[in-house]
Write a structure and sequence with these properties.
Elements (H helix, E strand, L loop, with lengths): L1 H7 L5 H19 L6 H21 L7 H8 L4 H21 L6 H26 L7 H14 L6 H4 L3 H6 L8 H12 L8 H21 L7 H13 L1 H4 L1
Helix pairs in contact: 2-3, 3-5, 5-7, 6-7, 7-10, 10-12, 11-12
InterPro entries: ARM-like (IPR011989), ARM-type_fold (IPR016024), Exportin-1/Importin-b-like (IPR013598), Importin-beta_N (IPR001494), XPO1/5 (IPR045065)
Family: Belongs to the exportin family.
Protein name: Importin N-terminal domain-containing protein
Length: 246
């Protein structure tokens, strides 16, 4: 079915495309609402997610402009659906920003990137809701949220990093053995982003992040100069922002 979508989707009548889209969405909601899926069912759900992402790439800018709102609203139904929706969003981001070069025209890619940026506020609100309710959410849901957020960090507007408490929330996850590495991966990604040397707010936020990460990790384990993750973060900041911190 993925091959059909990639090669002939736009040749199908609009009513057939709408019917197929609804059918795939209904199946995804049906499967993802079940906790502890069997391996075979999980594989089916993963394939359905991939099919949906392919459909979205063709429909989002035309007949399905409400896609982001729809998927975020459906996340309120239960935590299992929300968890799967994060993985769909992660796949969509990777498709648009990493893997779409040989599948779509440059114009299509740019239009999807614009749409993703336009709709990101809704996605960020969903991420923020999960991160603010860590104790109520399943750990697998929080992990899915962090993995999805990590896929977004390379392209989202700096506002969401500098002008929100995202960094604070990530650092506060360090005491959790289950979430620490995922939170740290997000911080490493943030550290690799270039910042404006003339923007004091950005510079201060990055310095604050490095200080907080070091303090939190020191409170958990002895940190030496050989600590790989910390050194990776420091190296990323220094490489991308040498003119700022020297």
């Amino acid at each position: 079915m993925q091959l059909l979508i990639q090669q002939k989707w736009l040749a199908l009548p609009e009513d057939q495309r709408a019917s197929l889209r609804s059918y795939v969405v209904d199946l995804i909601l049906q499967y993802s609402s079940v906790e502890n899926l069997s391996k075979s069912m999980h594989n089916i759900l993963s394939k359905l997610n991939s099919i949906l992402v392919q459909i979205v790439k063709y429909e989002w800018n035309s007949t399905w402009r409400s896609f982001i709102n729809d998927i975020c609203e459906s996340s309120n139904k239960n935590m299992s659906i929300c968890e799967n929706n994060f993985y769909i969003l992660k796949m969509l981001s990777e498709e648009i920003f990493d893997h779409s070069k040989n599948q779509m025209t440059q114009y299509q890619i740019q239009e999807l990137k614009k749409q993703m940026n336009t709709d990101f506020t809704t996605i960020f609100s969903l991420c923020k809701l999960i991160l603010e309710n860590l104790h109520q959410a399943k750990q697998t849901l929080v992990r899915a949220c962090l993995e999805t957020l990590n896929a977004f960090l390379s392209w989202i507007p700096m506002y969401y990093i500098i002008c929100t408490d995202l960094i604070d929330k990530l650092v506060l996850m360090f005491p959790s053995d289950y979430l620490r590495n995922h939170a740290l991966a997000c911080l490493v990604e943030i550290a690799s982003l270039p910042i404006d040397p003339n923007n004091q707010d950005e510079k201060n936020k990055y310095l604050f992040m490095l200080q907080r990460v070091t303090e939190e990790l020191n409170s958990l384990i002895p940190i030496s100069n050989e600590d790989e993750k910390v050194q990776q973060m420091l190296a990323s900041v220094k490489k991308k922002n040498r003119n700022v911190f020297e």
